[in-house]
Design brief:
single chain, about 150 residues, mainly beta, Deoxyuridine 5'-Triphosphate Nucleotidohydrolase, Chain A, four-stranded antiparallel β-sheet, three-stranded antiparallel β-sheet, 1 helix, about 5% helix, globular
Amino acid sequence: MNVQLKLTRGITAPEYATAGAAAVDLRAALDEGETVVLAPHGGKALIPTGLAIAPETEGVVAVIAGRSGLGVKKGVSLSNGIGVIDADYRGEICVGLINHGDEPFAVSRGDRVAQMFFLPVLHADFLVAETLSETERGSGGFGHTGVK
């Protein structure tokens, strides 16, 4: 699948770290010498990546996910949990971060702040119905099968 890139802020194209990597890292495209510090216990910031995309394949979405190392080691994750970049969006991709950790977290130019991967998308035809088909689960909600 081809994806057109518009690169700004002096960044380079993202690359897959290994042949088996599912995602590419997104890097902070802050000005040289600029640092954004996320305060502990909820500090947030919107980090530019200098990257805009245009997938050449219809029915594809880019998904922005947090980096596991930042989350586990530093308590830093995406502020919205997950990001969805619609196929028709052409603006710069920015990453919202939140610091759940106990220490300030500094972001500098070139730091890997998130990862991006691509998935096919299906559009649903919604059909209004009076009843829905029965299943074994039925309307059982959160935790209905137990905790363990």
